[in-house]
Every structure is written in C-alpha cells, then in structure tokens.
C-alpha cells in the first residue's frame, strides 16, 4: 500500500559533494607533490595542504547549513 520511497534531496547531495571535495583533493597527491610555486618561502606542498584546512572548514560549514536548512524545511512541511 503506501510504501514511500526515499527521496534524494538536492541540498543533501550538494552537502555530500561539499564533504567529498576535500577528500578528493587530498587523495590526488600528484596535484600537490611538488615544491613550487613557493608562497612567502613555504613550499607548495605545505601551503596547499594548509589552504585545504581552511577550504575544508568552509565546505563543512556550508554542508552543515544546507543539512540544517533542509531538516528545518522538512519538519515545517510535516507540521502542516
């Protein structure tokens, strides 16, 4: 009878992509396994990874906000 199928919501897919991007960037070692270009004397290998610490934080916050907004909208729709 009323079997509801799980629906893949776009915000959740985008949140998942935001969380997967840093993993892909760090697993693709050939993209940053070099010394140049240096930034204020810091080899590329190091500053690239430190940049991803900041980018990962931003992407995690974006994913968190997307999921929270989606959950709030879903709860609001259930109350009606």
TrEMBL record:
Report any Pfam family annotated for this entry.
DUF3311
| Protein name per the record | DUF3311 domain-containing protein
Q: Which residues form a coiled coil?
A: none
> Transmembrane segments in this chain: where?
7-29, 49-67
Keywords of the record, alphabetical order, are: Membrane, Transmembrane, Transmembrane helix
PANTHER family attached here? Answer: BSL5891 PROTEIN
Domain of life the protein comes from: Bacteria
